Amino acid sequence: MASLLVFFCSAGDILAQEELSPDTLSQDSTMVMGDNVAKVVTTSVISYAQRLQDRFTKSPLLITILYIVILYSIVTLITLLIIILLNRGRMQREEKQKTYLLEKYQLLLMEYLFEEEMQDKALREIERIANNRMNRQVLIDQMIDLSVNLQGKIKERIQELYLRVGLKRDSLDKAYSRKWHNNVKGFRELAFMNVRDANNKIIESLNSNNEILRMEAQIAMVRLSEDNPYAFLDLLEKPLSLWEQVTLHELLIQHKLKVPAFKQWFHSENLTVLIYALEMVSWFKQRGVGKEIIALFDHENEKVRNSAYKVCGEIELKTSLPAMIKKYPVESYANKLEILLAFAKVPDARYLAFLKMVLDTEDDVQLQIQATKAMENTDEPGISMLIKLMKSKSEYKNYQIIIRHVLDGRIY
After folding, report:
1. Cα–Cα distance between 352 and 359 in angstroms, integer?
2. pLDDT value at position 155?
């Protein structure tokens, strides 16, 4: 240590004896400032470390707590690592087992369904393999996958096998489970296998706060209904979401279910159900609903009235036009527009005076355009009236721009 000190002192004397240029002085001053900053930082760190050491020395309890926390953290990490590795190994084994079971069940199910002489043997083998919950669940899933693409007697034989093996008990346990995701699985399995033993639980779930469970209950009720696949709508209190409406409609089309008379829900207190019923009347072009739809023109809800006007246009209900004329002056802007769209879809020259009145009295351009389109759609009578209006030079209204716009074939 002494020799190092002598060395640094000698080096300092040598540097002091040399002639220093201004640049050298500048560089030296920068180095000196840097050394000073480094010394200050080093001193602060050393001082802080000494204070920490003094605190720990005076607080043995704090040190003990820190040791315990560190030890607990290490043990926890090691335990979690072991659990993760064990769980990963278990999942890999289950995946291999499921792959094997799928191949085995596919072969056995084909033998049971399509080879009469192998049926009893296949049944015994299926019962032997399906001896625990996981194996039985794989079998149920495989049977559902098969039933999706099969119809008639083959599908009935799958349902018969489902009952013979006792898989219904597994599905019922899931349906009545306290966990909603198990309920979803149970409802789906029972619906595919046409088992109605859990209908009370399914009906109870129709108004669940869980959207997924609610939709699955609706689908199950559609599948399990014998006469009216949409009977559950009478029990529905929650709003019927757009996604649920699309799913139910696709289910009806895909499985060629019996289409009910949707006018039976025109008095539903659930407005989403009422509007859905109106849309289904339009989709399936159901007739004999004129009086019921016209009665909805007086409904207190604006959206219901809007849907009613729209459906009248889509099913070309001419008897509704006079009623719409009466409602037009007191309706909202959106509903006025829907009424004029209905007149355009159901053109009738008898109502040209009404459309001309709209053209004269309305200041909104969109309403005027829709009234002009409705007049044009009546063919010769309406077009002749529009041409006369376009050529007239009334000071009250200037029709030229709107009528020319509507009659321009390059635009429409």
Report:
1. 10
2. 83
For 40-53, write each residue's pLDDT tens digit: 667 876 876 677 66
Task: With H, G, I as helix, E, B as strand and everything else as coil, classify residue 408.
Answer: coil
Spell out the domain ranges in the chain. Answer: 261-344, 347-412
pLDDT of 344 higher than 90: yes
Which helix H or strand E contains 266, and what residues bound it? none
Judge whether 204 and 234 are in contact, CB under 8 Å.
Answer: no
**What's the CA gap between 63 and 180, in Å, rounded?**
48
Reported as a single tens digit per residue, the pLDDT across 183-194 is 999 999 999 898
CA distance 250 to 245: 9
Instruction: Give the integer Cα–Cα distance in Å for 270 and 240.
Output: 8
HSE-CB at 198 with a 13 A cutoff on CA atoms is 29
Are 372 and 403 within 8 A, CB to CB? yes
Radius of gyration of the chain (CA): 41
How much is the pTM? 0.71
Alpha carbon distance 274, 394 (integer Å): 46
